[in-house]
Amino acid sequence: MNTVISAMSLDYPPHKLAVYISDDGGSLITLNAVREAWRFSRFWVPFCRKYGLNLRCPETYFATQEKFIGNAEFDADRNILRERYREFQEALEKNSMNESKSVSRDHPPTIEVMTDDQNKDSGLREMPLLVYVAREKRSCHPHHFKGGALNVLIRVSAVISNAPYFLVLDCDMYCHDPSSARQAMCYYLDPKHSPHIAWVQFPQKFRNMSEHDIYGGRLNNFLRAAYGVDGLRGTNLMGCNFFMKREAIYGTKNIQRGATLDQLKKLFGSSNEFIEAFMNKERYKPKMPEARKPSDALQNELQLLASSSYDVGTQWGKMVGYRYFSVVEDAITSLELHCDGWISVYINPSNPCFLGASTNNLNDTLVQQTRWAFGLMQMGLSRFTPLIYGPLRMSILQSMWYGALVLDSLSTIPFYGLSIIPPICLLYCIPLYPQVSNPFFYAFAFAFVSSQLKHVQEVFSFRDHSFMNALYELRVWMMKLGTCYFYALINSILNKFGLHEANFNLTNKVVDDENVMLYEREIYDFRALPMLLVPLCCIYILNLACFIIGVTRIYGKGDELLAQVALSLFGLVVNYHLLDGMFLRKDNGRISPYVFQLALIVSGVIFGCVSVFLLH
């Protein structure tokens, strides 16, 4: 609920703010929590505005150790708010204990506009709108994951507040800098560029990072590239932390002038109220009473817009709203918007505008990265592959950026080739690279060493980063290649032939104390699904065995096999954490004996198959 309260507290005119929370599970716990958040925010928002607080997330504000300088009135108000926040937390905890925690996959739409219990205006004009939205879900209709939920919010918000811009936040993010909306508006109010700007993207930054970011949660390799892409009509959508222009997401550039009502209904659905809000966005006045209690007619319209069948027979998810083609709705949507001629802006202020909670264990990291990689590879194997779909609609360089993003999983193929073939050839004393005395050897050595030095230089270009950050970043990249990209490539190929169904595995948002303790000590937590660990352990066991045996057999051939020895040694050293997890650690976070034994069997099978191929 801190996400909701911090969004309501943005430094922006309250009558222009409306916060919508999407609850896909239709949980009574969430609805009651939103009601409690509204009651607390009735005191919190005025307090923030009165004293101009810079920290407007209550959890962060009351947890900070800073001493806030103020007068006696400020201290008294702050103590009162602290007590109200404690009562708010107790109410949430009591609510979670009393109500059922089950999540429904089959439920009608529920839309509730938060207001005071009294039937009178008690300062509501000074409060932003807060609306709870649980869209309808039926097993007979596809719900299209996050993209479907966002499209429902777009439709519902159009007939309630109809703001020309909206901010998308994930539930584990909160507004850290209350000026973010004003910063985004600086770009939207630029008379030269504003007509072409679709969204303003802020980076995802996290408050719970370890010193060296052992799981790569900062996504620094991606964010470093975003600076350059900002000059190629802008970076892609990053899932959250962006301000979107409503006109852009409606796909207005694809609508013919003078379109009839029937044509508009084929695009946007049967709601006359929504079409009126879209067509008359300058003059449209949402039919929300001052008491914020929707009329029966408006409530019926909201139920229609949030129904599970509203998309059927329309262009929602195709030409309108977030696209449904892939589980990574942000990538396919931003690709289409860029192809339609829109541009985006990437802004990374020194004071983070949004902060969130990153994954703090290996299982959640690999599951999340696998889902992203699978969704991107879905695009890569479809008609939306950027290298074909993009060049006709955008610049070659921007198409290359999207291609690198979408087709990244293909890099798992050379990774497995370099992880399996050279060490086995080393075992059999089969040279693959030029001898040290051969001038071509230095070409291979230069390519390898320079690429690693370039990586280190890029990491050092970020402030407060060290060589250890570069090492951990390389390690995470190798783990993604061995697991996430491997499964993403296989599953996307199977999905292409109808043998694998796309799903949206939610990242765990619950904090585990033991996970946090290991993470803060920068110790890997290997309590992950066996299917995620076996490929990594298998490659390591294979390289370790081939290296130990191979080194003892290369006497007299060191000149020919030095490159293979160095390559295997490099992989073993970088991924020392796997050796530690399999053989040295005894705590609960170690690699389980079952995973080790399974990896041993698989590595033996791979060794046998490759050996037969090499020897015959």
Automatic annotation (TrEMBL):
Ranges annotated as spanning the membrane: 413-433, 477-494, 528-549, 561-579, 591-615
Any single Pfam family the record assigns to this protein: Cellulose_synt
Protein residues bound to UDP-alpha-D-glucose: 24
Membrane topology term: Multi-pass membrane protein
Record bears the keyword Transport: no
Active-site residues (renumbered): 24, 330
Protein name per Swiss-Prot or TrEMBL: Uncharacterized protein
The organism's taxonomic lineage, starting at the top: Eukaryota, Viridiplantae, Streptophyta, Embryophyta, Tracheophyta
